[in-house]
Amino acid sequence: LLLVFCSFSRSSAKLVAPLGCLVSRQKHTLPDLPYDYAALEPHINAEIMQLHHSKHHATYVNNLNVAEEKYKEALAKGDVTTQVSLQPALKFNGGGHINHTIFWTNLSPNGGGEPKGELMEAIKRDFGSFANFKEKLTAVSVGVQGSGWGWLGYNKEQGRLQIAACANQDPLQGTTGLIPLLGIDVWEHAYYLQYKNVRPDYLKAIWNVINWENVSSRYASCKK
């Protein structure tokens, strides 16, 4: 099946909901950040943010468009072999686009601290305390072998929060069924220029810029 993702205009950066479905054939575009590249300093420096957004995320967007165009041609020809061969590129680049579009909104220069309201109650219910949740998500993220993501997701069937890790750019919902609420990118390009190979230091710092309002909005949306 053709993987269909949302397209974004340059004015649609401040998105709360994760990428949904559009059955249009518009090309995907790189969303603007809702803050300046230097806004997350000193926790994540401007050089990292600029390269991460304008180079890495942009590459996923471009490669996704190329893969989808090839898939469209193969579909029209009934070329099942090519359709199958394109699946890894669609998953990798589509996942990269989905993951990063969520990630940028999960961060904020006004972030940090702890969540409030329903999300906080759910965290206490499912993890015992915010401290326990933070420790578990950090440990899962540190433990990702090679490149990947640590996630807080919502299990709609069970009505509870879950922590998960995904390899490479595997999208959380597409590979685990969990609805993504908070993603932590642990690819080296997300932190190496500032934290070198010390991933735990990056993970300690990133909690200072987590946008809990965004995460709470995602939680409220997926419960409807």
TrEMBL record:
Main location (coarse class): mitochondrion
Coiled-coil residue windows: none
Residues the entry annotates as binding Mn(2+): 52, 100, 185, 189
Segments forming domain Manganese/iron superoxide dismutase N-terminal: 27-108
EC number: 1.15.1.1
Gene3D superfamilies, alphabetized: Fe,Mn superoxide dismutase (SOD) domain, Iron/manganese superoxide dismutase, C-terminal domain
Record text on subunit structure and interactions: Homotetramer.
Protein name in the entry: Superoxide dismutase
Native species: Cettia cetti
